[in-house]
């Protein structure tokens, strides 16, 4: 099931890129990126606690409007409570967490996919001894002209 959801998220990304390619006369700037080359140690996002490692895949890809990020929340780390300004998908790859979504809290773990909608509030907290590792996917906001 976990692989099926990851496959679905990656398929969504591929379809997005495919549609973009058709519209821009067969782009030729495809590439492979390894997480070891892009790892960034950061505090918990949205004024969260603790330390995380972010892997911002394809962040520098020109004309690519999809954010695909892996984030490891190390023991004690959180993504602070915030209200979304876009739809987002979180997919839990490993570890355990406590998700607060619209003021309701529940445990999340490997194989859980979380859809947070524009206007929803949410926060995520790592629990246990193992890093909470998630993938995050959303459309990048359009740049102002």
TrEMBL record:
Pfam family, one: Cupin_2
Molecular-function GO terms, alphabetical: metal ion binding
Keyword line: Metal-binding, Signal
Transcription recorded as keyword: no
Segments forming domain Cupin type-2: 73-138
Signal peptide extent: 1-19
Annotated InterPro entries: Cupin_2, GPI/OXD, RmlC-like_jellyroll, RmlC_Cupin_sf
Stored SUPFAM superfamilies: RmlC-like cupins
UniProt cross-references to PANTHER family, sorted A to Z: CUPIN TYPE-2 DOMAIN-CONTAINING PROTEIN (PTHR35848:SF6), OXALATE-BINDING PROTEIN (PTHR35848)
Protein name: Cupin domain-containing protein
């Amino acid at each position: 099931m976990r692989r099926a959801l990851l496959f679905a998220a990656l398929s969504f990304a591929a379809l997005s890129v495919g549609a973009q390619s058709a519209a821009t006369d067969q782009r030729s700037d495809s590439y492979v990126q390894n997480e070891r080359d892009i790892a960034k140690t950061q505090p918990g996002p949205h004024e969260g606690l603790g330390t995380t490692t972010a892997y911002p895949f394809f962040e520098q890809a020109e004309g690519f409007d999809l954010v695909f990020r892996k984030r490891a929340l190390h023991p004690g780390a959180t993504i602070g409570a915030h209200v979304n300004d876009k739809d987002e998908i979180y997919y839990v790859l490993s570890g355990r967490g406590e998700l607060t979504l619209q003021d309701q809290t529940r445990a999340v773990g490997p194989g859980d996919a979380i859809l947070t909608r524009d206007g929803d509030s949410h926060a995520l907290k790592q629990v246990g001894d193992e890093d909470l590792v998630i993938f995050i996917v959303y459309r990048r906001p359009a740049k102002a002209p």
